[in-house]
Amino acid sequence: MNVALWNKTDQINLISEVNENILKIANIENHLYLLTVTHHLYHGIVEDIKGQQQQLQLQLYQDVQFKDIDSCQKYLYVIDLEGSVFKYNSDLQLLQEILLLNESKVCSHGHCAVKFKMKVESLAIGPFGNLFVTNNGQLWGSGNMPQVGINSTNPKRITFFDNRCTHCINVGSDFAIVVISKQVRSEDTDSDECDEDVFAPSCPHCTFVPSNMNDLSKMEHLDSSSTSSKNSLSTASLGCSRSLLEQSSESIDGNEKVAKNIIFRNTEAARDFLTRQFSWIKPTRIIKENVTNMASFVFEGVKTVGDKVVTLSRHVSGSSDNCDVLEMTEDVSLPRITSKDEFMWSLSQVTSERDNSDQGIQERCNTILRIGMNLLNCEVWTWGNIAHGQLGIGDGIKRERPMIITKLSNVGTRKVSVQGSHAGALTLDGRIYLWGRNDYNQVTIDSSVDQSSPKLFAINSEERFKDVACGLFQTAMLSSQLTLKYIGRQYKTDQSKVTNLYINNMTDNDVQSVNLKGQLLVSSQYLLLNKVGESNNFIEEFTKSEQEFLDDILHVQSNLIKTIIKKTGGSVDSLVYEQLTESYTELLYFTAANVQSLLDYSNGQIPDIDIAIFKYAEEHVYIYKKYLGAINDALSVGALAQISKLLDVSSNLYRMKWNGVSKKDKGSIEEIVKSALMLPLQRLKTYPSLVFKLIVNLQRESRLLDIHGKWNTIVEEQEHKQCEAEKTKEFWCNSGRIIEQFRTSGRRLIRESHKHPIQLQNAGRFSSHWFILLTDILVHVNGSTPHIHDLKSVWIDPPTEDNYSLNQICLKMPEETLVLYTLEAEQKAEWLQALTNAIKVALGLSNTVQLPIIRTAEYTFYKAGFYKDAKYNGRWSNGKMHGSGQLEWTDGRVYKGQFNNNQIHGFGRMELPSVGTFLSFIVFIIK
């Protein structure tokens, strides 16, 4: 048996065999209704046999298939596969259809357009009212809910949540809760395209076509359109076209020519309407110049179907009845996210064709980051009675409008469950929050006081949960180890407040099919569990550890990162802080997407290869490298210490288990900031071993070992780069003001002559020379005067027998030559290697064996002579201008041409500015 069923804590014996997982459960008193994942409805009455276990005999309702059900009082509400809502009695006799009719819109000329019946994806029914989510994400309601402007037995659209997409709806005895997200328009959306054009078939202005368009030759051209255009039409376009044609009323029964003119006129008008409509469809960003052609193709297809143009013409002219109800075809509405599962953005649907260029990786990163952002940035809104704190807003003040539950918004709320007067929420990181009425200890077990704000439920601080469901007087929780807990007392006189109803004893070899939607379902006092086996225990452990990491970085994001963004906007190192916070947020979003993919895998929704850490290994490494670069830049310039001075660190961070720092410790603020920002680095060190275990357990060694190698490489790189950043930070702190001017976030100290001695050949007895090798420049401090040499314009002369014996290194620059020496051969080798590698990196040629003699570089001359203050950009050969280049003086002179051995030589062009004017170009050749 795939399911287990309880009445409170008493298990019910299922006599009938149900080999499917259950999607939804509802009840009318003791009559249970079970909807399976294949849309079959089973129902039966729970029989209470004296002295024996309760039992349930189920029978299949074969007439219709449904995709959602709910019950209230003596009625069952269902949604069929076409999106229509029906009301049944307890014996499954159809009572009525519930219509969701969109309000009649008015065209710009004042004529009423057509009403459409909306298609429904999900519903929530309760004594307080009814909520419906349409297939385009709109929220509708009926009943008495004045807070959202609903006071009608007929469903109406709730305009308060316009421009938001609804993902989860719940109705209790006297309150309602919805989970929504804001709809973000594309950046290229034109403001003038946001207003919807309304086409009214009876409006003479809407159907008016200029006379020059009403030409029979054009109509014949439309009639002779190629069939290839018709075949490429979408059913959505065809359905929309037919609706427009059928809504027009009777046509005159004149001759065939008149009929053709009429249908042509209406076709052109409707085509013009469709042109305007298609132009604002942003999910596919239709090219504007093709919009008119697309609309034409739609009506060409309609006109020529079955050669019934004359017959169709009878339905095309204006009608006085504009309020007829049409059932909108399923494909007419724009595709939007409508259900929670669609909102989770199944990662398996991204294209498998990979562009491994930097741009391709960045584009895929952006897609994954949007997924993670949408997962985390959900809002939880509530309205209704506040007597027992069921609104979760922290007080008992009556509200006239919906209120947002701030504690549950933007933290990755996956699910909200409501029944009676209490509620529970499950977050992406596996935490459960409960609030509301607590007379049976269904919210907290330590007291019976009602909870007016969401309270974290934690018997064991290490425990994570997979699901939560609220009944009338109880709460059921399914832990990550598949242990089912019943929270609450059966009767007020009971002492037991927590009961384990089910403990998973399955082994890795005892694998069953996995539920596709949810594993825990509650209706009133009835509780149902879809029993599943785990394909691999290590997956659950990895998921749990990733959820704990997500929990930690969410705390850092809310208590530190957001504060850094606010407080460091005008500081000197604002760019460093911006890159740090941006990359941290990106890492947070990717972790959220990875956690969701792990949960999807454990629920059987995706294969193991679609787990984000596998499928998007390059993107994960890319995002991690971006954060590593940002944190190392911040470390190198001492930004973490600066953050601790600018901010008041939240006390929440001191309570986190990963820091081990108390407020009384000296320097505790800097330590807590560093520990918080180093969390991703600590997690990074665990990835190679975790990924290796995953690969072994999933038995995919041959394909995924390469991912393990990538994580090993990035860990080794990080350890090396972190040491460089720490060393650079120490150097900047002790270098003095002369050198501080060269401090930038991207520079690292490679070597300096105070710790690694190297001297200048033939230097004066009383002179002092300090050589500092950074990642892009060589600084030579002569006394108190620094000289900067760009490494791109530094050449190293190869060693000869003479200078090799003297441990010399000869450096050539455009205007000088430095001969350096060390006391020991080993020191020379270290300096030579450091200089060579630094120049290679500066030139972007890390993999070359030898330094190139010929290069392209930029240099500004500073010594007296013909080139003083001139900036040269062009080709060089061993420290001298050689080849094509351009010289530009500060007085405006510009020479562009050929150079040879540091001299102007060959074909060139000189610009000589005059007072207020420029002389013409002079072309000359120097022999």
Automatic annotation (TrEMBL):
Keywords per UniProt: Repeat
Gene Ontology biological process terms from the UniProt entry: endosomal transport
Domain of life: Eukaryota
Listed InterPro entries: Alsin, Alsin-like_PH, MORN, PH-like_dom_sf, RCC1/BLIP-II, Reg_chr_condens
GO cellular component: cytoplasm
Classification via Gene3D superfamilies: Histone H3 K4-specific methyltransferase SET7/9 N-terminal domain, Pleckstrin-homology domain (PH domain)/Phosphotyrosine-binding domain (PTB), Regulator of chromosome condensation 1/beta-lactamase-inhibitor protein II
Entry keyword Repeat: yes
Ranges for domain Alsin-like PH-like: 735-844
Sequence ranges of the RCC repeats: 378-429, 430-481
Alphabetized GO MF terms: guanyl-nucleotide exchange factor activity; small GTPase binding
PANTHER family membership: ALSIN HOMOLOG (PTHR46089)
Protein name: Alsin-like PH-like domain-containing protein
Source species of the chain: Pyrocoelia pectoralis
